[in-house]
Specification:
two-stranded antiparallel ribbon; alpha+beta; 8-stranded antiparallel barrel
């Protein structure tokens, strides 16, 4: 007779899995309650008891009943005043015993039927069963004789030689692509000479059993293909008619992936190497940023020569090297690539774009409302919205007040070289140029941080300021 399975959870044992699960659920509920409430507090204990009383289906396990007793002691409530958990538990156990007795009775009835009348009705050796067995044996014999022929006629038309030829062809094609990628990596990314790049690419291919990257598979005879196939099998590059990539090749491919060369044959989608593609992306990025800066400075009322000068100064501060010509040699692009890498502007062959958050460059973030107080003018309130393409060297804002519209700019070109005396005991360094264009008038000055607002230096006077207004209903 099989031993009855026991379910143990902590200090209690349970006869059924259902009881075990109920106890586990109760422990989870108890932990949640204790994390949220102080169960030793009488008032909180009373509230928890009231909730449990409203949901009698919870906390029915021994752990649940023990927890309820703890709550009752903390709340100063007797079991009779609260609810009789022992009676409830006994009723539940009584119901479970009745269900178990009924199930055992049904099982015994079914077993008697199976061992008695039902067994008598079932007979193995009948004429019908004997005939069915003969038919099955005949089918098996016929299938074993004709199945190989049927499948050979219904196949895809490829024999072993065709399969091997296709595998060898695929093997050689993949090697040729990898070899080209390796050469591009060593030549353009690492910066080796052509001879060194060719040597290192060839060395990479030596990790294969055979290097078929330069062989023409279509011109090979069946005997040569069979011989190559056998060498690859013996060397371990083919196992169970599947390619097995050498571990060293996997490492090399990871390097190519990091260099951005894994998705093509070593060139960009339009025949570009990884270096050329990165430099072209950088040029496109710089052009868009330059023209955005030019446009923003033109909003302040400057003429072309002046706003182009401001934009060029910002670009040089941002990038160091500014590219305006697409007609460059490979050597020039390689030099730019290395320069941008050192500055951290190209990483893993991808350009690193500037953040759109002005505070990342110690420039102000003034949205959504500001107060502007300029010397000799009344303080004005404006809605303020940033319009910069990439606020790194300069950040631009459009300001609105009723029908009035204007623009404001803060530049990060102070260089901590100019000092402003705020009062007798305090002096600060200027952050850069300040421009505000409103009422068709441009005001120029220098800006600095001064406690709760941004100070503005106008013609030697530092009393002007821009303050951010925190409008929480905006």
């Amino acid at each position: 007779m099989a031993q009855e399975k026991k379910y143990k959870l902590g200090e209690y044992e349970f006869r059924t899995e259902q009881e075990y699960r109920e106890a586990a659920a109760d422990l989870k509920r108890i932990k949640g309650i204790m994390d949220k409430y102080d169960v030793s507090n009488p008032e909180q204990a009373k509230k928890i008891l009231a909730t449990v009383k409203a949901h009698p289906e919870s906390l029915r396990s021994p752990y649940g009943r023990k927890f309820i007793e703890k709550l009752e002691n903390a709340a100063g409530v007797s079991s009779a005043a609260g609810f009789d958990t022992q009676k409830t538990a006994k009723r539940e156990e009584s119901k479970k015993r009745e269900k178990k007795i009924k199930k055992e009775k049904v099982k015994r009835e079914r077993k008697r039927n199976a061992d008695g009348t039902e067994k008598e009705k079932f007979q193995i050796f009948t004429v019908r069963n004997f005939v069915a067995g003969i038919i099955i044996i005949a089918c098996v014999v016929v299938f074993s004789v004709f199945a190989p022929r049927i499948f050979s006629f219904k196949g895809n038309g490829e024999n072993n030689e065709d399969i091997r030829a296709n595998m060898i062809s695929s093997y050689a094609k993949n090697q040729a692509e990898l070899k080209e990628k390796l050469y591009t990596y060593y030549y353009n990314v690492v910066g080796e000479t052509e001879e060194e790049a060719q040597k290192d690419a060839q060395e990479g291919m030596s990790h294969y059993v055979l290097d078929l990257s330069e062989r023409t598979i279509s011109s090979m005879t069946e005997s040569e293909i069979s011989d190559v196939y056998q060498q690859l099998v013996e060397g371990g590059d083919i196992q169970n008619n599947s390619f097995v990539e050498p571990a060293e090749i996997t490492v090399l491919k990871e390097k190519l992936l990091a260099a951005g060369l894994s998705g093509n044959t070593g060139n960009g989608s339009e025949g570009e190497t990884a270096v050329v593609a990165a430099i072209n992306s950088m040029m496109d990025y710089q052009h868009r940023m330059y023209y955005s800066l030019c446009h923003n400075y033109s909003l302040l009322g400057y003429e072309e020569e002046q706003y182009e000068a401001f934009a060029a100064e910002d670009m040089e501060a941002l990038f160091g090297d500014v590219i305006y010509s697409f007609n460059m040699t490979e050597e020039e692009k390689q030099a730019y690539f290395e320069s941008f890498q050192k500055k951290g502007l190209i990483k893993d062959n991808q350009i690193v774009r500037f953040s759109t958050d002005p505070t990342a460059y110690n420039l102000p973030d003034l949205t959504p409302m500001i107060d502007v107080s300029l010397k000799g003018e009344d303080t004005e309130s404006f809605e303020c919205s940033m319009i910069s393409y990439a606020p790194a060297a300069s950040v631009f804002y459009e300001i609105h007040s009723g029908d009035k519209t204007g623009y404001m700019c803060f530049r990060n070109n102070g260089g901590n070289t100019e000092y402003i005396e705020v009062d007798e005991d305090t002096s600060v360094t200027t952050q850069g140029d300040f421009f505000i264009y409103k009422d068709s008038k441009l005001t120029e000055g220098r800006w600095f941080y001064n406690q709760q607002h941004i100070g503005i230096l106008l013609n030697g006077d530092s009393s002007s300021a821009v303050s951010c207004v925190y409008d929480l209903t905006y």
